[in-house]
Design a protein that fits this description.
4 copies of one chain form a homotetramer. By secondary structure, the first copy, chain A, is mainly α. Chain A is elongated. The first copy, chain A, is 72% helix and 0% strand. The structure holds a DNA duplex (21 and 21 nucleotides).
DNA sequence: GATGAATGAGCTTTCATTCAT
DNA sequence: AATGAATGAAAGCTCATTCAT
């Protein structure tokens, strides 16, 4: 129906706007009036779409997690070697850091840092499950293929995502001497070196 | 001087209190009255020691960075192998996560996440230099000793700190199945595997 | 006309719904969306029937006053003794407290308490005249019949309605040890005892 | 101590101001900025004295109830006949309606009408106990002295307070033809007539 | 140095009302 | 008649910071 899709489109606009602002200025330093102004709608109307500022942030993390999860899902389903999959994931992640830095910044600076905002509604890792799941699948398939050492999942996960997140952070701080994407292969090698069987 | 040292002691108390609160509740959810109450002094008097809430956070990150840097300095100066040094650093970091989790949480959740708070006064990595420098020294000596591959420093740094930070985060979220310290050796091996010559 | 009567029916629905909500939650805690939802119509459409929230409340008090007035009118017209009429009025009032508590609660908690809402449009006692008039008639006929003392009308009115309202209030607060209707005869006696010639 | 008493005095000022405004405009139509302006202090400072608007209203009802209770206590302790005590209570009540109408209006229009405001903190009749208790004492002593019929307390209470409240209400609406105090003796007689043994 | 009352701007959220469809 | 998205003013409340004492 026309009406429904228009409302959905509006929701999408709000999410994208809020995502950009939260990523740039942080959750607390972004005000509802900020979001209203940038969306071009009134403060009151925002509340016709989301019941609270927190609910907006929670919707955004689900949105980000789903986007990340979808691409990694595709990589998982491909017929590549584990080593090559790592390379693809790293390149994808770093590509995103260049093209849609808001997604990564939101993840690192809003979701990971402001626990209290996600406490009710995103308990545990629910809101981030689509992404987590795919990383899990990647790792398990690598082990099953005999390419990766069968170690504790969280140790592998911490390496993988901590490493990528750390680089994204340094890139965001503009202290890397090179372009982030130029690190991709070296880093993929480091990860493979650490996890391989 | 007596007076000076008493004032310094008070400053130290405030820093420790604020550190604990910021780490626990976040920068924005911690109020100046919260800090005053927990320190046992008045709100007004706090401003005789620090000119603003931001200045307190900046002082804290310098304090944390110095503490971390000192221990890593000692490890750097020891006559251990690079592999063993990695193990020591990992154990020290994870030990801190258990014993003084505020330090790590502050670093991860306040310093890394709230850019705007540290924008004026902690530009670049100034406030975190004591720690960064020692990690740099560790890496350069490892390379010079022929133990580590001579790759871009930031790539190595991102691996090391991203990995440890990621594990600390997962531990803080209480989603690790094992005790953090039980991961130490496995993780030290992973790091060494990734960086070795 | 068909159209007219349908519109009237709708108005009636809205009045009953709003009456129930205002009585239950109070004038200010009841929102237009609340009323719209419970009526099953849209917010906008409500404004095709009533120009404002205040106008709705005013319409309701006229409606309530008319309903009360009609029954008292019947009692006035009957051939009963004054003492028996009092008994009937008290029973009728307490019966209403059980069967349609909204009417009484609206009167006590919305009309009597929120002066500002009825200021423009219900000045003085206009909106409540149908009810007041019948009480007046009852009293005058009681005096004319020689059953009641010829005292100031308002003094008698205050006794009668204050007493009944007070009991209705206590009943609404659920602090009466007995069922409200069990008090009816005792109270009718008290009133007669106070007013009789 | 100076400080303590000054703070208490301020609290008193706020209570008196808020009482006047609530009585005049109602709880919801009175805003915190209204109270701040009339008190001559800032909005923020009000919250150094009371944690919320509701808490202010609750404090006020305790204050009003205590004042009323004290005077009735004195009347109870006097050596007057029951009939004379009734006369005194009625006169005192009507006198208050003239001199401090806010007290009575607050009781009738704010406390009795806005249940939700007093729900948490004034459950049952706690906040109004000092007043209720004295009315209870009056009634019990009247029965013991053989002056009053031994009927259900609530029936007698409803008569007494409903009657007085009703007259106060009519007076507040300015529809009484005579001065309220001119009704006092007539009304005291009515009450005595209704309750006497 | 120490206190904590005082300030006031700013926050999130609500809601009666309007109006394009 | 009917819808419900949109408006915007205003509400209650918070809190970093100041300042008279």
């Amino acid at each position: 129906m026309k009406k429904e899709s228009r409302k959905e489109a509006r929701r999408g606009q709000i999410i994208e706007t809020a995502l950009a602002l939260f990523a740039q200025k942080g959750f607390y330093a972004t005000t509802i009036p900020d979001i209203a102004e940038k969306t071009g709608m009134s403060v009151g109307n925002l509340y016709n779409y989301f019941p609270s500022k927190e609910a907006m942030a929670q919707e955004i993390i689900r949105y980000v997690s789903t986007m990340l999860g979808e691409t990694i899902h595709e990589i998982n389903e491909s017929a590549l070697t584990t080593k090559e999959k790592i390379r693809r994931i790293v390149r994808f992640y770093f590509g995103l850091c260049e093209e849609r830095p808001e997604l990564i910044e939101f993840f690192l600076r809003v979701y990971l840092a402001n626990r209290e905002v996600f406490h009710d509604g995103c308990e545990g890792m629910i809101c981030v499950a689509p992404f987590m799941t795919e990383i899990m699948v990647f790792f398990e398939e690598g082990v099953r293929a005999g390419d990766l050492r069968n170690q504790d999942f969280f140790s592998a996960f911490g390496l993988f995502m901590g490493y990528l997140g750390g680089m994204a952070f340094l890139n965001g701080e503009r202290i890397l001497p090179k372009n982030l994407e130029d690190y991709a292969d070296e880093i993929a090698d480091n990860i493979y070196g650490a996890l391989k069987a």
